[in-house]
Amino acid sequence: MSVSGDLFSSAADEDALARLRLRLELAAEAGELLDVAYTTVDSPVGSLLLAATPRGLVRVAYEREGHDRVLDTLAQRLSPRVLRAPKRLEAAAQELDEYFRRQRRAFDLPLDLSLSRSFRQLVQRHLPDIGYGQTRTYLQVAELVGNPKAVRAVGTACATNPLPLVLPCHRVVRADGTPGGYIGGPAAKAALLRMEALA
Amino acid sequence: MGVRQPFEKVVEQHGRTVLRVCRALLGIHDAEDAWSETFLAALRSYPGLPETANVEAWLVTIAHRKAIDVLRARKRQPAPVGELSDAATTLSLPGSGDDGLWEAVGALPDKQRQAVAYHYVAGLPYAEIAEIVGGSADAARRAAADGIKALRRYYPGATRKGAPS
User: Fold this and answer.
1) Under 8 Å CB-to-CB from A154, ≥6 apart: which residues?
2) How many domains does the structure of chain A reveal?
């Protein structure tokens, strides 16, 4: 007869584990072993996953992207040393909160763009040039980065933006004035444009 | 393809079991230091772990070494731990009520305590346990059986405790 299950179970496990998790987070950061820290925050456009390397914010993900799938991808592409560690994301979480309260119009955070390359990264870097409350068409953005023929590639760069909201791809719209696609879904894009238009 | 899952999942899936293993090896007082050392060392070497590795056996192997370190340190500096009668006062987890059990496990000889922890707590097969502690699988099986027998004698209430899930 086995005595395992009930013999060693304890109601106090949860408290101890919560304490140990926090201790691991701090020790990992101090020991420079926290390659990818992440947390989730609530927002008016749903739960957002925020992830950062020691260099800066590396990923903002909408719930519809599947947070677990995003974490798997980060483990594969950056490092499997991925831990839930909200402390590193405190500044990002606060700036996003201010943005959604309409108390912030631009983000001032260290960013890590290592998830995107070449032309896509070039486009993404230029997205903050589109000011709060403004929009540009895909063609205008292509012209902005000096490659007016690359309209489709601009669309791809927006669709694969690793840092939506912070790099405001929601401000890039179709030439006919309709919002167009968005990594966070068309409803989120419309809501963000509506919110920024109130200013 | 690399399919190494995020380390967060390793903590979620195995953190509780490793904590119980550490308690069985060291008692409730030193278990948390051993758990922390185990997961920090695991995080450090995780990217190099072969994808086919049994993650729980790997963690228990690290915990085994960390527990030995803690026991060695304990011998160097006389500390008032390990006494059956101290149980209630060293307990830092309110409402756990398991202090007597962990003390009883702590009173077992090393081999029995390890075999009980790795088989009954971590659920490892005896062949894996033999690889961690040395000796044969049969010896590990005997040590676990002797340990459980002794536990029932020290701590007759053990099998009735807790809520079966």
Assistant:
1) A123, A138, A139, A141, A142, A145, A172
2) 2
